[in-house]
Every structure is written in C-alpha cells, then in structure tokens.
Amino acid sequence: MSINPNPSEILRLFAELQERLYHGDTVKNAINQICKHTRDASIINICQVIAEILEIEFEIKFEQVNIDSHFQAVHKLQKHQNWVMQKYQEIQKKVGSYNPKWPNPLLKIADTQLARLSQLIILLDKEPDICDNNGNLIRPNDLVVYPCKDEKNRSYEHYGVVRATPNGYRIAHFFTGETVKPEGKIVSVGIGYVHFAPYTPYWLFKERPEKEYPEKVSDIQIEERIQKSKEKILTAKDPLWNILRYNCEHWAREMVYGEPSSTQTMRLSQ
Q: What is the CATH architecture of 143-269?
C-alpha cells in the first residue's frame, strides 16, 4: 500500500469526528436531561464522568423523577454515539494510507475517548434506582411519609409501607375516606381503609426497618399482617381510624414491627 504524503484528508476526518462528537451540544443536553429527572447517584456520577471526558460544563438541576425522560435522553446518546462511530470507522479504513506520525497520536486520544464514552452510555441504559424527591433510595418495607397538614394547619406525616409487587413498588397505607382533604388537611376520626397506592417520589423516606431492627422484620410477616388488617377492616362495624389512638403511623409501624406506635401523637394532642 502506497503512503500518501499529504495528511490533510486524514486530519480532516479526525476533525470531523470531533465535530460530530460535540455537535449541537447533543451530549451536554442529554446528560442535563438525565440529571433533571433522576436521583440515582450512580447515574448522576456517570453523567459527571462523561462531562469530564469531553471537558464540557453542565449544571445538575433536578426537577422531578421521570423514568421516561431518562430513557429518552439515553436513546439520544446511543443514536449520537452510533453517528460518531460511523465517522470513526471511516478513519479506520483510511488510516493505513498515511504516515503513522500523523494519525497515531490522534488515534490514541480518540480510541480512549470513544471507548470510555461507549462503556458509560451502556451503563446509563439501566432502570434507575427508585429514589424520593430528596434523593433517598427507596427499598421494600421502608417506612415512608407523605407531608400534609392537620386541622390546625400543623405539619403532619402520613405514613405508609413500601411493598414490592409484580407491578412495581406500591405504598400500603391506612387512611379514612378523608384522611387527606383537598386542602391538604386530615380528619380526626374515620372508618379506616387499607390502600395500595403506586409509589411516587413525593412519598419521602423515613425509616429502614431492616437496618434498625433486622431481627424483627420479615417480609412474609409484614404481608400477613397487612392481609389480616384488610380482613379486619372489612368486617369492622366501628370506626378504626383515630388521629390520636390509631392513625396511619400506628398502623404502618404495627405492620412492620408487630406493635402499633406513633411518634406524632403527643404533638398532635397539644
């Protein structure tokens, strides 16, 4: 194979490779979108490493958890990476026609750059960890709370228990029909129901029972307690919900630990 003494074409191809890589801030916009819609620390760290490799600046401005937006951005990155690699493959076909002193230093940079980016983009293509809006990791059997107000407009936490189901995480919680009124307040006494709500990041992490009392927590026991509670409620003739004697926190802690208790009743009785 003859050696072309004029390196202009191969150098131009390397320039086009970098132009594609940085084209239209595609990578920057994608990692911005990902970090706006996840609290998964590992995913955010991957985005930061991508920014460091390309020496681009971006700000992490979280808005709300949105898995669809996360995967839309990942797919944009994958499509962009394929486009970049097409130019890289064109370089590979022609690089042997030139004196190695021209392409080799640039190949070394590009090989490392593209290999790392490809691996990181692959790592981004995963189901993000489920986190609340404060960035806390959510796991089955966690106690979680939904902030609301009592009748005196005081802050109150509505408790629930995270359950893993075939349809994703659900929150088992105990409430009366008007536990949370439209204006965000709660009532004092009610019939009481057990409900399974889809998990959203507005349910904030409160306590991880397995960490606090590993010997007391059993997934099977929790499930049995919840089922018994549902059966009891169906046959009850008297109201079971009471903001001071048996509220959502009493119920949630009983389901997890076997004994009803509430950390909020003393403050609410004042």
A: Alpha-Beta Complex (3.90)
